[in-house]
User: What shape does this take?
Amino acid sequence: MVKEGKPDKLYADSVQLAYAKTLEFVSHAIIIVMALGFILYIFRLLPLTVPVETVAANWHLNATKLQMKIHHHSGWSCFEDVHTFMHGDAISYASVVFLSMATMVCLATATIAFFKEKNRIYLLITILQVLVLLVAASGKLTSGH
Assistant: This one.
């Protein structure tokens, strides 16, 4: 029965439901992690590798020029050891990395759902998508910067 142009029942398959549940969980977790990272950074609850004032004074620079000016590690190097990672700005950066990985986590969930359904084509497509995202995130293929 249709009321006011809306269907009586909405349909979502198991893959869509799994993806949506994962996205909901990851979204809430990201908000919490980003808020904690921001609080740690702004209130300097952990030591900073780059003072907030230095970042603010160089806000006009792009990331490459800023990194060259302050001689700071870049990319995944802030996660090399616990000493480097336990800084407010590194944890704040990690929260942004976590945000960028949300799609990959949801696709991994979809991959599991496609495997359970024995849907080989979509399983292959999602595996390839996760692999492409992992290669892109690794930074191994860069444009010569």
